[in-house]
Design a protein that fits this description.
By secondary structure, the protein is of the alpha/beta class. Helices cover 58% and strands 14% of the residues. The chain is built from 30 helices and 21 strands. It starts with a helix and ends with a helix.
């Protein structure tokens, strides 16, 4: 980039050159025009004098005299010729060498820049200039005289003048350049000094460089101003430097203080987490023993009063567990350790599970409770089922807790890719002044509710944190005295495809017509809407309808106990009796009036409320396939719990109470148990003996459960010993998610306090009957083993429900028909399934596996149905998952099932 000095010189020289050029050109043009004008003026004067002398001759057309008159003109030095024409323009005489047309060029026409170029061009091309004069005779124009002037003299004069102009211009340029340089030096030197000093200050940060204060007034002012400014900047910089040093010292001291505080806070947080984990373990350990023993005691042969005492102990313990869980969840949230693990879940099943959990509690307060999922809700979604159920359970529990009369209603919708869940109640509501803090920890609608309604006030706060962790939205609407509705909205991605009740039961129900008595009961309205969503033809029956013919067109009439009673009272006795086989009373199992209507013969069947969609479909399917000849209760006697007399279990737990608890639970299932106190003993026991199942505590002295499982798995891999199922037991409060424990070598997970149902579910999920059948059992008699295998392979309640009202002949015919067809046809279905697997035909695999599953469920062959369902589920997703081990297991299970069915058929005969 050029300096200001150079640019100033260039600008001044450019201006001087332009001015010199303009002045030179002007001088040359004016000089040339003046010379030409002078020559033309002389020529015009000569032409005028000559025209006066030859006017008479031209009028007479005396050519000789004309020539004599104009020849004298050529004697002039600059005249090259002359031409005489008459008034018509015809040539009369010509002398010399005329080189231009007879056109007159007056001096004024040659002045100006526009005539300079053509004038110079005419001079230097040798063209003559023409002067013309009219010829008169007696004041009558008789012709014209044109005199031609040589341009040579003009050219020489112009060249002389131009040379002089150029010389003058060069001289002026030199003088101007010298003046410009001197001027710019005087002007720019102070500026240059200022720029140099500023550059040094900018690059080095030094502000002690000043500049001379000489020169003209203006430059001296600039220099003085700059020096003053640089001095002030230097002083300010020094102050800033000192302040910066002081600030850095303060920041350093505060940083050290913050690091100390941070380390202290982290240590405190770690200590709190360790304390909570330890306290959780220590509290859950005795609590586990208390709850299990109370549960077992309540199931024993006690009088009602002592049984109630045992139930209260268990209920209080469960409440204490809930408080511990809330505190641990809040601690995890505050520590940032809360994790959300979405998997493919069925949202309708989550609603059904929560409703089932709180159904008895709602019935105790005589509240209606129901759940409904709109058809728009996908069959499977990606969500964390534990956290979703935790949120929903909190809402429902609060609704029941704060509602004295009315209902609690759960509703689920799917709008624009988001799952919307709401829980509405008719409880006390929330006052406006308390609504802004309802999601704060340890806060309830009013302080008195802690004493009146119980609870810690942590539930809604935890729910809000959970919803936020799932990128959702939580809120509520409430009006004091009229109830509340709490809702959440979550991003919901549909998961694997699933048929919306696309089973045989639903298909058959769609051919039925079911009437509902008018009812204010929430459960009845939800049931009717649910059946309508499935595709059942639902009709509303008038409570005063006495038209027996229209009522006979219905396949079933459902109503609540009060509605059924009112309906029967308005009917004639014979009509009521004729409709008794169609009448079904729906209510909670604890409703005594429902049982009275059934036992007294007014209705044929009963339905449990609340009911899930799938449960309702299956129950109605069973009702339609039962003989309605006499009143009966469809649910029948409670099935006997499973027994595992051949199973040998190892229990590793360092706590004596926990070992006693596990001994009592496993004794309920006739399981032989061996107990050890730490991980080292567990490893030694597994290396020397073969156990059918191992229950491993996580937190033990000497060696913890995780390390023990790792060593057991390593031993199994090295020795070739079959893999033993290992179930993790822990009181640390982790979420019930098997996958992390599977990665560590476990096969299942049970959180403490342990429930009998948890152990039963784990035993059933581990397929211990198949495992035992494969490696053999020596602790049971063959007969006992066959009975146990029968219980594990077949759900006899399915067959018993079909034959409960049949006489012996009808029972034998049913066994011969149904079980005989199953024993004959299923081997062919299994062969077709294997052929489709070998051919890689996914659609055929799905169809044949579905058929095998359906027919097996219909006769209670649950183990065959489970394996077939696994193959069907994989095929539905476009995969064929049937290893050789799976195929062999399915073949063996079917052979055992057919063998048991054959024996049952023979015994029925």
């Amino acid at each position: 980039m050029r300096s200001i000095r150079v640019r100033l010189i260039v600008a001044m020289l450019s201006l001087i050159v332009m001015l010199t050029i303009v002045l030179s050109v002007t001088f040359i043009q004016q000089t040339a025009s003046s010379v030409v004008a002078s020559q033309l003026t002389s020529a015009n004067r000569l032409a005028t004098l000559a025209s006066d002398r030859i006017g008479v001759h031209v009028a007479r057309r005396d050519i000789h005299s004309i020539l004599d008159g104009v020849t004298a003109l050529t004697t002039f030095e600059d005249v090259t010729g002359a031409v005489v024409t008459d008034s018509d323009g015809d040539l009369l005489a010509e002398v010399g060498q005329p080189t231009a047309s007879p056109t007159s060029h007056a001096a004024p026409d040659l002045v100006g820049f526009r005539t300079l170029v053509p004038l110079i061009q005419r001079i230097f091309e040798g063209h003559a200039f023409t002067a013309a004069a009219p010829i008169y005779n007696n004041e009558i124009r008789v012709g014209s005289l044109s005199v031609f002037i040589n341009s040579m003299a003009i050219r020489e004069e112009v060249l002389r003048i131009a040379g002089l102009a150029v010389a003058i211009a060069i001289l002026v340029g030199i003088i101007a350049t010298l003046a410009a340089m001197a001027l710019q030096t005087m002007i720019t030197r102070p500026l240059h000094n200022v720029a140099l000093a500023m550059d040094i200050a900018g690059r080095t940060g030094r502000y002690d460089e000043t500049i001379p204060e000489d020169g003209p007034n203006e430059t001296a002012v600039i220099a003085r101003t700059f020096n003053a400014m640089i001095t002030r900047i230097g002083a300010r910089d020094q102050i800033l430097h000192e302040q910066k040093a002081e600030l850095e010292s303060k920041v350093s001291r505060r940083t050290r203080d913050l690091e100390v505080a941070k380390d202290s806070a982290e240590s405190a947080n770690v200590a709190k987490s360790v304390f909570l984990a330890t306290m959780s373990h220590e509290i859950r350990t005795p609590l586990n023993g208390m709850l299990v023993m109370a549960e077992l005691l309540a199931k024993s042969d006690l009088d009602p009063k002592r049984k109630r005492y045992a139930e209260l102990i268990e209920s209080s313990g469960r409440s204490l567990v809930n408080i511990i869980n809330d505190v641990l969840d809040l601690s995890k949230i505050e520590a940032g350790a809360l994790s959300i693990d979405p998997i493919a879940v069925q949202p309708r099943k989550i609603i059904a599970d929560v409703i089932d959990i709180f159904a008895e509690k709602a019935a105790t307060k005589e509240l209606d409770i129901a759940g409904y999922a709109d058809p728009s809700v996908p069959e499977y979604i990606m969500a964390d089922p534990v956290r979703l159920k935790q949120i929903l359970s909190n809402f429902v529990n609060n609704g029941i807790k704060f509602t004295a009369k009315g209902y609690v209603y759960v509703e689920m919708n799917h709008v624009d890719g988001r799952l919307q869940i709401s829980v509405r109640d008719t409880g006390i509501g929330i006052k406006p002044e308390n609504q802004n803090r309802i999601f704060e920890p340890f806060s309830q609608e009013e302080s008195s509710t802690v004493r009146r309604y119980g609870g810690t006030g942590l539930g809604l706060s935890i729910c809000r944190k959970l919803v936020e962790a799932m990128d959702g939205r939580i809120g509520f609407e409430s009006e004091p005295g009229k109830g509340s509705v709490f809702f959440v909205e979550l991003a919901c991605a549909p998961a694997k495809s699933g048929d919306a009740v696309a089973n045989e039961a639903a298909e058959q129900l769609r051919t039925r017509r079911i009437g509902f008595l008018p009812s204010d009961a929430l459960g009845m309205r939800v049931m009717a809407q649910t059946l309508a969503d499935v595709g059942v033809d639902v009709a509303e029956v008038s409570g005063t309808d006495a038209d027996i013919e229209s009522l006979q067109t219905l396949d079933m009439i459902i109503g609540s106990p009060g509605d059924v009673t009112s309906f029967i009272e308005v009917l004639p006795p014979d009509h009521a009796y004729s409709l008794r086989d169609k009448l079904v009373c729906a209510a909670a199992p604890s409703n005594g009036k429902r049982d009275w209507l059934r036992d007294s013969g007014h209705v044929a069947h009963t339905l449990d409320l609340p009911s899930s969609r799938d449960g309702l479909v299956d129950e109605l399917f069973s009702l339609f396939h039962a003989d309605a000849g006499e009143p009966q209760q469809i649910e029948g006697p409670a099935p006997e719990g499973p027994s595992f007399p051949e199973i040998q279990a190892l229990v590793a737990d360092d706590n004596a109470v926990n070992r006693e608890v596990m001994a009592a639970i496993l004794d309920q299932f006739d399981i032989q148990s061996i107990f050890v106190c730490n991980g080292t003993e567990a490893v030694e026991a597994c290396c020397s003996n073969r156990f059918d199942v191992v229950f491993m505590d996580i937190n033990m002295p000497v060696m913890d459960g995780v390390e023990a499982v790792k060593r057991i798995r390593d031993f199994e891999a090295d020795s070739g010993m079959p893999r033993a199922p290992i179930v993790a037991l822990t009181a640390h409060g982790e979420k019930l998610n098997d996958r992390p424990w599977q990665d560590l070598g476990f096969d299942a997970y049970i959180g403490k306090p342990v429930h009998v149902a948890d152990i039963q579910s784990a035993l059933l999920s581990l397929d211990l009957a198949t495992s035992f059948a494969q490696h053999g059992g020596e602790t049971s008699e063959p007969g006992a083993q066959d009975a146990h295998s029968s219980r594990m392979l077949i759900d006899w309640s399915t067959i018993d429900d079909l034959t409960r009202t049949l006489d012996e002949s009808q029972r034998k015919n049913l066994y011969d028909t149904v079980l005989g067809i199953y024993c004959t046809d299923t081997p062919n279905q299994l062969d077709a399934l294997f052929d489709a697997i070998d051919a890689g035909d996914v659609e055929q695999v799905h169809a044949t596996a579905h058929a095998l599953k359906s027919v097996s469920l219909n006769v209670g062959a649950v183990r065959v149905a489970r394996l077939a369902a696994d193959i069907e589920a994989a095929a539905r997703e476009g995969r064929i998952e049937a290893s050789q081990e799976t195929r062999q297991a399915l073949t063996d299970l079917l052979d055992q099932t057919i063998s048991i069915f054959s024996e049952r058929t023979k015994s029925a005969a």
